[in-house]
Amino acid sequence: MKYIVAIIQPDRMDEVLDRLTAKEIHLVTVSNVMGRGRQKGIAQVYRSHTEAGSLLRKVKLEIAVNDEFVNAAVEAVEGGARTGQVGDGKIFVLDLEQAIRIRTGEKGSKAIG
Amino acid sequence: MNGMRYRLRVIGLIAGVALTAATNTWAQTAAVAAAPAAAAVVAAPAAAPAAAAVVNSGDTAWVLVSTALVLLMTIPGLALFYGGLVRRKNVLSILMQCFFLACMVTVQWVVFGYSLAFGPDVKGFIGNLSWAMLSHVGAEPNADYAGTIPHSVFMLFQMMFAIITPALIVGAFAERMKFAAFALFSLLWATFVYDPLAHWVWGVGGFLRTMGALDFAGGTVVHINAGVAALVCALVMGKRLGYPNKLSPPHNLPFAVMGASLLWFGWFGFNAGSALAANGLAGSAFLATHVATAVAGLAWAVMDLIKNKHVTVLGIISGAVAGLVAITPAAGFVTAGGAIAVGAGAGVICFLFVTVVKPLLGYDDSLDAFGVHGIGGIWGALATGLFATTAVNSGGANGLFYGNPALLWIQFKAVLVTLVYSGVMSFIILKIVDAVLGLRAPEQAERIGLDLTDHRETGYTVLD
Known about the structure:
The complex is a heterodimer of chains A (113) and B (464). With 113 residues, chain A is of the alpha+beta class. Chain A has helices at residues 13-22, 70-81, 109-112; strands spanning 2-8, 29-35, 45-46, 49-50, 56-65, 89-95. Chain A has a single domain, classed as 2-Layer Sandwich (Alpha-Beta Plaits), CATH 3.30.70. In chain A, a hairpin with a 2-residue loop joins strand 3 (45-46) and strand 4 (49-50). Chain B is mainly α. Helix content of chain B is 67%, strand content 1%. In chain B, helix 3 packs antiparallel against helix 9 (253-271), helix 8 (219-237) packs across helix 14 (405-436) and helix 10 packs across helix 12. The longest helix of chain B has 32 residues, at 405-436. Chain B is globular, with a radius of gyration of 21 Å.
């Protein structure tokens, strides 16, 4: 089992979710986050202060998948989130040790199948 | 330690110079007695001092509405304006401080504050306590102050000024003064700084009123007074943790815009209401207020564009507030042209002070209470000395550009007296409160945020 964490541009979220659904991947957790990459954010100005560079708004997706779905998930996210501009984001694939469906108590691949 | 001694020396130097200048001039007698209330009474058509005062329903209705408008300026106008500018973790502390002042100063005013400020004069310095608990303050008009409205209505109108003045100072110590210290400081300040100063400028027998200083709606009493107290607070209390490099932006600029808009709306009560009558003078004060504010907003926006390459929302609303402040002493004495000049000056001067001078000097006036209210008020008071004309208000006087340089000098003296008295007294009160309660929240409390540590509340929930 793998745990995919993807940081993407907020306005790409709908496209990514559509592509995941098309590949039969439904389980996902989405959160609002702030972040930056190698580029600095847009410097804000307020009265006498100009920031050096700030964090930008991003969206984080967390998807638990069985091994056979990893490529499909990564393709869905990459395809949906890529614009070619700086700030497109990152995808991280982590090993997932255990998964449990709370309602039924199922463990392992069945829990995220 | 070094920083504190340096600050004390600066304060001492300013006080010494100002006192020397002021005491020389107090010996001179001044002829023209023109304060806003007197001006309004003299300018009103039926001004006959000895005759029985008759309540005018139009005047009374307007002043009642103005009273409510000025209360709106504090809650929620100033509350939202300041509240939006601080970090999330401190938003409630700002709202609380403003709301609390509305409650506390009301009681103080009714019990003894009004009497001290406007009551029978003692040596030109303070009113006595014979009007405590609003004794002698009833439905019958007080011809000295406002001959056509009930005395109680005049008292209420003035109460709202007494409420908002300490609220302005909140901008200086925001995000780091303990609530208990704030409450004690504000009570002492209202009693020992605001009430005497209001008496000097507006009270019958007050020595600045007798000297002929023109202050239509409270440039000195409210803005310069609160502004310099704010500066002293900022210097005495020291900077916030992480100032100036690790500062967060305003957490809710929409709040700040709402607040500034309510301030603009309410200020018509502040300025035009100070005509104390529903007449042409109220109309011209309304006009001057509105025009100066609009021009000041534009002026700040232009400065923003020049310095920062963008016109910012925070900039334009700050400019508008600076214009409102500056036109306050001048509102009932200038033409539309004068108002344009006052507004333009406010926008440019306050912008430069806030964005250039303040960072250079390095003190932490969190929300620019001195930069906008203090500096804007000083410009406005002096600009009154430039642009005032008896063509607009025969109860006033002419300024420099209307052939009378003397007024400018009188205004300058009034400004100086205000700066020195408010500065010194605010310092003393701060030291007393520091000794009794301690002024600053502990470092950990400042990190967590005053909402949780002082009030056990949060402004916004995160999960439900």
